[in-house]
Amino acid sequence: xxxxxxxxxxxxxxxxxxxxxxxxxxxxxxxxxxxxxxxxxxxxxxxxxxxxxxxxxxxxxxxxxxxxxxxxxxxxxxxxxxxxxxxxxxxxxxxxxxxxxxxxxxxxxxxxxxxxxxxxxxxxxxxxxxxxxxxxxxxxxxxxxxxxxxxxxxxxxxxxxxxxxxxxxxxxxxxxxxxxxxxxxxxxxxxxxxxxxxxxxxxxxxxxxxxxxxxxxxxxxxxxxxxxxxxxxxxxxxxxxxxxxxxxxxxxxxxxxxxxxxxxxxxxxxxxxxxxxxxxxxxxxxxxxxxxxxxxxxxxxxxxxxxxxxxxxxxxxxxxxxxxxxxxxxxxxxxxxxxxxxxxxxxxxxxxxxxxxxxxxxxxxxxxxx
Length: 370
What we know:
Elements: E1 30-35, E2 39-48, E3 51-61, H1 68-71, H2 76-95, E4 100-105, H3 107-111, H4 115-126, E5 131-132, H5 135-145, E6 156-162, E7 167-173, H6 182-187, E8 204-211, H7 215-221, H8 228-241, E9 258-263, H9 265-275, H10 282-285, E10 289-290, H11 292-312, H12 324-337, E11 343-346, H13 350-362
Parallel strand pairs: 1-4, 4-5, 6-9, 9-11
Antiparallel strand pairs: 1-2, 2-3, 6-7, 7-8, 10-11
Helix pairs in contact: 2-4, 5-13, 7-12, 8-12, 9-11, 9-12, 11-12
């Protein structure tokens, strides 16, 4: 019996076409929100060249971590303030029709016993989903945001992000990277502090640390010390004690070829005071370089002013006067360990890092100089 030929045998196979990748939309809007221990801040931006153009923003001191040091939990009042701020952010996102966004929470939600519960409350009441990120990702994003400020002549780089509840330090050796490519080598760290099989001359992360002390938590540690100068000295000493596990701590660092990039309200406030600005001007502050001696003079002036004088100083402002000395204590502890003639002031941080990371992953940034 002649075997039956299977139906369709010998027919040409039908080609299966894989869909072409959808090209990224260069006009799309991106959002990044950083919910920290003290502030809620958001940026909405559009890619432009190798950077981005901010089209809307939001910033409010919500003091989410108020009382956290004492109770280990977020208070009802601080959560209510924060949810109200998140509602404003949600309205801005909807009004701008933003589809691509990354919304993150940091140290306060990491440490609080009811942090996860609060994240669920935010989603329930505003529809916004926050991710509680780990310290390494927070540090990495802060580093990426500062890449445009890295000098091509820098061999050793220390990036410092002084937050409300924690301070991240990342020490990076870029001496083996060609001078012209050093800022871009920092940008590539968004893939991880130790990315495998990197075909480019790579920035090497010597060490990084997340110290669970920021401007709010350090202040709360010593809030019972009445004398202003004594409280400042104790805060600075205590912060330095917490650096003992950081690998470069005991190494003497030559000033030549060494750069610190500082990103925080503390650093920008000190810069505004150094410049004598009557009104804050980001264009004058972001990227400004200061020496250890210049910063020391500003901090001594803060101590001379005392609490009442600092409250009235327009360069410090009502929102920051209660936190500026704990931030200054952190900054001066770092400069005692590593004096520098090149501390670059960065009015940028986690939000900008989140935007760079999203846009880079989508391929909408031009591969050109910053």
